[in-house]
Structure formats: structure tokens, C-alpha cells
Design goal:
By secondary structure, this protein is an alpha/beta fold. The longest helix has 18 residues. It has 11 helices and 13 strands. The strands form 3 sheets. Strands 4-5-6-8-7-10-11-12-13 form a 9-stranded mixed beta sheet, sandwiched between helices. Strands 1-9 form a two-stranded parallel ribbon. The protein has a two-stranded antiparallel sheet with strand order 2-3. Helix 6 crosses helix 7.
């Protein structure tokens, strides 16, 4: 049984060494992610975060393109491409209800989770819920009138790495390779993710015929649930956010020996700070935190510590109503009931 699990894991990883015939147009060479600016990130009033994110990528012209367009039930689904960093293009699904008028609608940037399967990214967010207990939260929002953009994070789905040759006896781990390469260049994987999500926001703001740029929210599950509030910290264009199964203090991850993806960590934040202290700077912007008591990925002690800090700061600012906390008895999945509560909040 253990050998079978290992082989299944290996089968998911090995196809990432894509042949020229099978490569997606969005697949990228490793070195394209290392075109970085000389100066570090700027995050006004957040010096610890600014230092920790390291060097940021060099932005490329947006140059948006619609690659494909199809009807998906009562929705329109467009596959879009846009400039991210120098030599890199983003790939995303834009999902919306087709309407005869030109009224600008609220938009949501929907961030996918990790799951250890790099062949799937944005597709998990827009697929029908009957394929999983967790997926489909972007589709649900689009059906309720939001314009939804679901991008592939670097290394996932259309943006898997192109590796021409390698020399190692170990199974290929693209995330580890990207993380180590960025670290050597003075950057971080979280910094890269956040920069690319800002470029996704640029794309949404470019859709001026259908998107109200003053009403853009963010939602994410798991890895996406970690990145969603971090994006709010560095970009004021995001007016509200939902984090599902994605938050606990970094100290609790160490205390309970929880191993996460490389994009979940930042250097130098401990012991002087922690995630709860950073996220307190979001107040009073609307934020919803969903967490499971039995989630093995995010210790309940770390969730409770973070929630306690958030409740205190939102109360101090007189905006307790802008903070929604849903701690349920379940685990890691983002269930239909939880998604429904998130849609109402947004």
C-alpha cells in the first residue's frame, strides 16, 4: 500500500518534465522567474513584511489576451493570458454571467489551493462542485453575479516548469526547485505568488467594461486561504477577503511540526512578530476566517491565537461586524455550507 501511494505521487510529479509536444503555451523556464528588481518589496507601514518578502519580480507589460471563450451553462468562461514578470505570462479563467447591459459588477480574485498536484490549479476553482467537496467556489460566486478571475499560481497547471535536463536520484519537485532558486536570488516563493496575484488584480482593473475596480474581493482555500489575506496586506485595491482553511500562527506550525508548502513561510518574522500581528493591520477591512477544529494542516491552538488577536483589534476600531469567524467541527475541506456563508459575507 505504501509503495502504491508513493508511485501515485510520483506519477503526478513526473509529467511536469513536459516534452516539447505536451507543453502548454503558459509553461515557463525556471530562469524566467529570476528576473528581479534590485530593490526589495515596498509595503507601507509593514517593515517586517517588506523585509521578509525579499526582492520582487520585474513587471512586464500587461498585454492581456483572450485565449479561448466558451459557454459553461449560464456562465461565460474565458481563458485569458496577461503579462506577469519579465519573460512570464499568467494564465487564468475569467468566469462571469453574460449580461446585455454594461453595468460594472463586483469582482473576486479566487485563489486555488495546493494539494500536492501541480497539474491542477485554476481548474479546481471553476469546476462544478460535484467533482469535490472543496472545489468550485469561484463558479459559485460567478453564479451569484460576481466577475471571477481564477489564476494559475507559478508552477501549477498551465504554468508548470519546463526542465530540459536534471541530475538527481530523487523524484522531481518543481516547487522545491523554484523555492531554492528564488532564495538564492534574494526572493521568496510567497513574494512571487503575491506579486503575480497583484498582476491578476491589474487584469481585473483592466476589465473596465464589466468590473467595478472599487469592489474587488479575494477568496482562497488552503494555500489560497493563506495568500488571500496576505494580498490584502500589500494591496489596498482588495476591499474584502475570505480565508478558508489557510491560517494559523507560524509558531503553532513549528510547535505541532506541521510541514506546509514553501510558499507558506517567510524568513525573519519570528520571534519578533507572527502572522496574527501582521493580519491585525487589515482592520477594519472586512475579513472572514473559516477554520476546522480537526484540520491537520492548521493547529487549532494557532487558529485560536490568531482569531483572538483579530477580534481584539477589530473591536478596538469599533468594527467588530467587519470580522466574521467560522470555526467548524470538521477538517480541511471547504464545504458547500461554508462556501454559502462566504458568498453572503462578500
Amino acid at each position: 500500500m505504501l509503495i502504491a501511494k508513493y508511485l501515485n505521487r510520483l506519477r503526478r510529479l513526473l509529467p511536469l518534465q513536459a516534452s516539447a509536444k505536451s507543453r502548454s503555451a503558459g509553461s515557463q523556464r525556471l530562469e524566467s522567474f529570476f528576473a528581479l528588481c534590485e530593490d526589495p518589496w515596498g509595503a507601507d507601514g509593514l517593515p517586517a513584511l517588506e523585509r521578509a518578502l525579499g526582492r520582487r519580480p520585474q513587471p512586464a507589460p500587461l498585454a492581456p489576451e483572450v485565449v479561448d471563450r466558451e459557454k459553461d451553462g449560464d456562465l461565460v468562461r474565458e481563458k485569458v493570458s496577461y503579462g506577469v514578470g519579465k519573460g512570464c505570462r499568467g494564465s487564468a479563467y475569467l468566469l462571469y454571467q453574460e449580461q446585455p447591459d454594461k453595468i460594472r459588477r463586483p469582482a473576486v480574485l479566487a485563489i486555488h489551493g495546493h494539494g500536492g498536484d501541480f497539474s491542477q490549479g485554476k481548474s479546481k476553482v471553476v469546476r462544478a462542485r460535484n467533482t469535490s467537496d472543496t472545489y468550485g467556489y469561484g463558479r459559485g460566486l460567478a453564479q451569484r453575479g460576481f466577475v471571477v478571475l481564477a489564476p494559475d499560481m507559478a508552477g501549477f497547471e498551465d504554468r508548470q516548469l519546463i526542465i530540459e535536463s536534471r541530475q538527481t536520484p530523487w523524484p522531481f519537485d518543481p516547487e522545491r526547485l523554484l523555492h531554492c532558486g528564488l532564495l538564492l536570488h534574494g526572493a521568496t516563493l510567497m513574494g512571487l505568488y503575491l506579486f503575480e496575484l497583484q498582476r491578476a488584480l491589474d487584469f481585473l482593473c483592466h476589465c473596465q467594461d464589466m468590473v467595478d475596480p472599487t469592489r474587488i474581493a479575494v477568496i482562497g482555500h488552503s494555500m489560497g486561504g493563506t495568500l488571500a489575506p496576505m494580498l490584502m496586506l500589500i494591496d489596498q485595491r482588495v476591499c474584502a477577503g475570505v480565508s478558508a482553511a489557510g491560517l494559523a500562527t507560524w509558531r503553532s506550525l513549528l510547535d505541532f511540526a506541521v510541514i506546509h508548502n514553501f510558499g507558506a513561510y517567510l524568513p525573519g518574522v519570528l520571534p519578533g512578530s507572527d502572522l496574527d500581528a501582521m493580519l491585525c493591520q487589515l482592520a477594519p477591512r472586512p475579513l472572514m476566517v473559516i477554520a476546522g477544529e480537526q484540520d491537520p494542516n492548521f493547529p487549532l491552538a494557532g487558529v485560536n491565537a490568531l482569531v483572538s488577536s483579530l477580534k481584539k483589534i477589530y473591536a478596538q476600531k469599533g468594527r467588530s461586524e467587519n470580522l466574521a469567524i467560522m470555526i467548524h467541527p470538521g477538517g480541511h475541506p471547504f464545504t458547500e455550507e461554508q462556501q454559502s456563508r462566504a458568498w453572503v459575507f462578500l
